[in-house]
Amino acid sequence: MSKRKNPLKDLDSFLKQEASSFVEPDKIPSPHLKEDQAPKALRQEEVIDFFQKLANEDEKKFRTTLIDIVRKSLEWKGLEKAEDKMLMNTLLYFENQENWKEAISDYWSTR
What we know:
Layout: H1 7-20, H2 44-57, H3 59-77, H4 82-95, H5 100-109
Helix pairs in contact: 2-3, 3-4, 4-5
């Protein structure tokens, strides 16, 4: 009688052999950041200074940037609380004062 092959057993032994010879590759440094230029967390004062400089340069750009940052932050965090939804509606109103009802309706219909 001939011996039956067990392909799962063969595959299992092959994978064990490959796993034992696995070597983690060296990490490739990011081309944009050097090791001493890792991104750092901003303090609240630095963010406020940024907004003050932006407001002094161009008030319209300041409002647009501020609204965009708050909007993206809310979406990233999640709009779970009623206060978050109200703030989002207020931002949508500021962005679309002419047709704010449609903007709010469109935004929430896609979520």
